Amino acid sequence: MLRGPPPQELEIDSIRKPIPSRGIVRMSQSPTPNASPYPDLKNQVALVLGAGQSGNPKSKHWGNGAAIAKVLSTSGAKVIACDVNLDAAQQTASRIQASGGVCDAAQADVTSARDIQRVTDQVLTKYGDQTQPQNRLSQLPCRSPDHGRQGSGSIINNASIAGMRYLGKPQVAYASAKVAVMHFTKVTGVMYAGKGVRVNSVAPGMMYTPLLEMLGNSESDNDREVYRKITDHNVPSGVMGDAFDVANCVAFLASHSSRYITGQNLVVDGGLTSSTGTGGVPAPSPKL
């Protein structure tokens, strides 16, 4: 999490209140699984890589990949939840099936070109050429997309705001990998535009997921609450997002509504990368 000023310098109880001078209205912190469906995704096939999630499987929150699979399913897509951990992929598939969605589970290591080719071939054999891959991890096998031979498709890569600015942590390799994902997206978006294949990416900001929830369990209840409020405070929207904020953007990029968008990176961060990282605190008025 982003850690701002020390707790004693911040009025924690007032962080989530609207600031009258700017009229800020705080968002809800509850999970947001309900989204407007995209009818054109009905019966399309979506391969979601990294669809498992870490943390408590009984958590009310969803991981980014799992939420993406859920939202695409809500629009009527036939989803393949793929993860290196088959149990995690099956957990996601079960949650989606429980609500009436169509979702199969598959196992693959996304760093292995052989694994990805195997899963892709399995999907194409079962469902035909209507697949929308959603690559959640940064280590993507650099190979020509199978969409080229079918003349259509949408690929959405998972980037991060860590590739856009320093977030206060020494995550050099992670941040560099996310920069690579964004540029990879731009280049391949142009290369395959003429073949009817769109390639875009999403860059999530500070998202509250089961993994973050699990990491927070190593801290005391008081410290966890303080740091959560500080992080909320640093986001201009006033609260951390959740995986469904990311998933809803992925569904848009997979749909025909974004047919003229390719090679782009969609930032989903509540305004964080456009801000100074001090959230909704109004700047002092200059003395004239």
UniProtKB/TrEMBL annotation:
Q: Which UniProt keywords apply?
A: NADP, Oxidoreductase
Query: Which residues are in coiled coils?
Result: none
**InterPro entries, per database record:** NAD(P)-bd_dom_sf (IPR036291), Sc_DH/Rdtase_CS (IPR020904), SDR_fam (IPR002347)
Q: Which GO terms describe its molecular function?
A: oxidoreductase activity
Bias (Polar residues) ranges: 127-138
Start and end residues of each stretch annotated as Disordered = 18-37, 127-151
UniProt lists the family membership as follows: Belongs to the short-chain dehydrogenases/reductases (SDR) family.
Q: What is this protein called?
A: Short chain type dehydrogenase
Species annotation:
Penicillium alfredii
